[in-house]
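Structure first, sequence second, as always.
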């Protein structure tokens, strides 16, 4: 049968070159080609089928994930895929698995915190998957407060070993992905004790299970922590619990790049800052920002396509009803999310650059940009994951009732995504890290110290603290200088107000604690400024292709002005803009929605997602939603029989009883 593109009329309206936008979205032609090839490879292989996840039991689900992970590895080896291709392939398999932690945290922890000899020994095994590792930091009693971890690693000079021990119930490792059922090894974080002295938290490589029969090694108790939120979803992952009972490991299994313990039991702190023990978290937070753009763009792709297919009300003379995407309220909820997906993509690209830059500097023992890298990764991880989790849920609502069906793909996407607001640092805790960094920076204002990087704008404090916006027309709100000034002034004024209020407290710690809700808002304002400014930088760079710049300018305007609208109270109360200018911003926003409307479907096509990856009937490329939804309903196991199991036991007797009562 001939395939019909129900969205062809939408695609024909596009005013830009979609193929060129695909390259911009991917980051480069090379990145696009790799991504495109890997997504097709996965989509065309029935072994990677994923449409049955919601109906599997936990055990079936988990075994299925093990099968897919093994098969993915087989294909990676057979096809001699590069690291970049392999990681894209795993991404498109789209199923959380122990391999995420092996490649995403275990390997980077050893790379970042291990010595050359440790790299030689452990990375060689890990790269071939001859050992499988996880990242075991969090405990039952402490996650956010890493310095509060209780597991101990006591040096025994007689045997030249560390004794790893869980002294309390709350010191049980709890949550690490891959730990519960699969990992043979872990990088664990424990307090280093030498001669009774506590040297704080350090990383150690510990073997957990036998490489022969997979049983836990002596002294190790290990298991899965149980079902998590949602059907399918993150339950493909074996988040685990782990207790140590005086487990011995050789001294050379402490990760010794940051500090060392000698044969004699001497603790040696190198020039490298202690905070590098937290380095893996900086790396992963940076990857989480790019992942946010992937998750949000996926939900937005579903909601945009479905909003163009769905019609309600407004039929004139028996003609078709209105496409719901034409309702201004739908646009005002949907287009800021579309714009955010692009914004997070570009800020993620920049953050990757920042991370690579700081890594190069660290290798050359230059540590000055580490605090900024920490603040940016922490803050942007927090900002983008919060917005993405909320955005996925909004997309579900934008799809009305059908969005609540598993076959829309949105419930599972939400359930898989929402822990990103907690893992790798609770989002509020991370904002407070940014706030600390901001308070330090504000305290340096006027000291003559040159501010660089993302706080460079504070250098113009004198102007930004007293300026009022020069915006006179709605059109002015498209000028980057006006947008930037408003966002800079708001961020700086919120931070300076916090600093002033903290200084009134009996001591800075008490002040910080009292002001923490305001500090978190100041941190959000600073992070939003970063996203807006990186979007503007992107547009001002090399963008080739018909109509691309215009579309990106419109999206950038929508991102910035919808934030201005959402946080209007802050922009007005800090005196950065006037109510009249706020009204002009809203006027501009409305015209930008109208500009994006004919391009909306093409703008989500530019994500280049296969139907397999989207996993959504509502978001199908061809828009053929209704027949497929109808077809899918009949596949539900509940429809295997006409009369359901349980009818004769529980329904029939009720009906009979009512018949008897009726006769009486
Ligand atoms: C392609 C691969 C993708 C892989 C993706 C895999 C994803 C898989 C999915 C899930 C995995 C989830 C894994 C996890 O969740 S692992 C556990 C994560 N845990 C956390 O994030 C804990 C959060 N807590 C902390 O980070 C810290 O405890 C803290 C909140 C920062 C506080 O720490 P501490 O008490 O030591 O710090 P202070 O506030 O006193 O700060 C001391 C100074 O250190 C600086 N600092 C803090 N952290 C860092 C850092 N990471 N890097 C650099 N510097 C840091 C801080 O700013 C202070 O500096 P100052 O100059 O002010 O003294
Ligand atoms: C799906 C998933 C996967 C995970 N994978 C791993 C893994 O692989 N390895 C690993 O080691 N860990 C892992 N974790 C653990 C995760 O990193 C922690 O749960 C996370 O860091 C949050 O810490 P917490 O649970 O202690 O939260 P808590 O700190 O107990 O947070 C509870 C509440 O207290 C608030 N709060 C806490 N401290 C402060 C403060 N100072 N100021 C203001 N408010 C505060 C928080 O905002 C939050 O609202 C995973 C967690 C999840 C959910």
């Amino acid at each position: 049968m001939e395939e019909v593109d129900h969205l062809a009329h939408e695609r024909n309206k596009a005013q830009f070159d979609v193929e060129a936008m695909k390259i911009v979205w991917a980051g480069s032609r090379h990145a696009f080609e790799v991504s495109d090839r890997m997504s097709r490879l996965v989509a065309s292989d029935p072994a990677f089928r994923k449409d049955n996840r919601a109906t599997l039991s936990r055990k079936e689900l988990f075994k299925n994930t093990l099968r897919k992970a093994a098969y993915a590895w087989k294909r990676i080896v057979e096809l001699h895929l590069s690291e970049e291709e392999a990681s894209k392939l795993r991404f498109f398999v789209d199923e959380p698995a122990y391999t995420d932690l092996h490649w995403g945290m275990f390997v980077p922890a050893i790379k970042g915190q291990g010595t050359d000899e440790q790299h030689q020994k452990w990375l060689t095994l890990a790269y071939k998957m001859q050992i499988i590792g996880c990242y075991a930091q969090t405990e039952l009693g402490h996650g956010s407060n890493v310095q509060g971890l209780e597991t101990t690693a006591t040096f025994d000079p007689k045997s030249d070993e560390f004794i790893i021990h869980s002294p309390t119930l709350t010191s049980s490792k709890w949550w690490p992905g891959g730990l519960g059922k699969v990992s043979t090894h872990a990088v664990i974080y424990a307090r280093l004790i030498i001669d009774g002295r506590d040297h704080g938290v350090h990383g150690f490589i510990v073997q957990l299970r036998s490489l022969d029969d997979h049983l836990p090694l002596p002294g190790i108790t290990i298991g899965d922590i149980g079902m998590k939120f949602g059907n399918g979803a993150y339950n493909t992952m074996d988040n685990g619990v782990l207790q140590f009972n005086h487990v011995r490991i050789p001294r050379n299994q402490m990760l010794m790049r940051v500090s060392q313990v000698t044969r004699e039991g001497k603790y040696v702190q190198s020039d490298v800052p202690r905070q590098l023990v937290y380095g893996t978290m900086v790396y992963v937070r940076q990857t989480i920002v790019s992942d946010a753009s992937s998750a949000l763009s996926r939900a937005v792709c579903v909601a945009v396509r479905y909003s163009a297919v769905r019609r309600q009300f407004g039929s004139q003379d028996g003609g078709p009803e209105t496409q719901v995407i034409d309702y201004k309220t739908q646009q005002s909820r949907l287009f800021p999310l579309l714009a955010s997906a692009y914004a997070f993509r570009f800020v993620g690209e920049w953050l990757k650059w920042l991370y690579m830059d700081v890594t190069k500097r660290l290798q050359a023992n230059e540590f000055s940009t580490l605090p900024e890298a920490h603040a940016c990764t922490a803050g942007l991880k927090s900002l983008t994951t919060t917005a993405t989790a909320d955005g996925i849920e909004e997309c579900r609502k934008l799809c009305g009732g059908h969005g609540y069906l598993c076959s829309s793909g949105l419930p599972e996407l939400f359930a898989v995504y929402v822990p990103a607001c907690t893992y790798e640092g609770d989002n509020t805790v991370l904002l407070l890290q940014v706030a600390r960094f901001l308070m330090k920076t504000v305290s340096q204002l006027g000291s003559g110290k040159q501010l660089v990087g993302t706080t460079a704008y504070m250098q113009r404090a004198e102007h930004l603290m007293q300026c009022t916006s020069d915006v006179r027309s709605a059109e002015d709100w498209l000028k980057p200088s006006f947008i930037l000034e408003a966002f800079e002034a708001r961020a700086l004024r919120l931070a300076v107000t916090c600093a002033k209020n903290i200084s009134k407290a009996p001591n800075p710690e008490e002040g910080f604690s009292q002001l923490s809700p305001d500090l978190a808002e100041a941190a959000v304002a600073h992070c939003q400024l970063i996203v807006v400014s990186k979007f503007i930088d992107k547009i001002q760079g090399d963008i080739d292709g018909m109509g691309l710049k215009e579309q990106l300018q419109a999206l950038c305007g929508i991102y910035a002005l919808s934030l201005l609208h959402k946080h209007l109270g802050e922009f007005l109360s800090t005196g950065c803009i006037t109510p009249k200018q706020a009204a002009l911003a809203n006027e501009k926003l409305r015209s930008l929605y109208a500009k994006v409307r004919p391009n909306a479907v093409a703008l989500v096509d530019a994500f280049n997602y296969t139907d397999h990856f989207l996993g959504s009937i509502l978001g199908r490329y061809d828009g053929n939603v209704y027949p497929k939804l109808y077809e899918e309903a009949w596949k539900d196991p509940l429809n295997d029989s006409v009369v359901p199991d349980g009818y004769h036991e529980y329904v029939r007797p009720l009906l009979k009883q009512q018949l008897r009562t009726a006769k009486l």
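Margin note: The chain has 23 helices and eleven strands.
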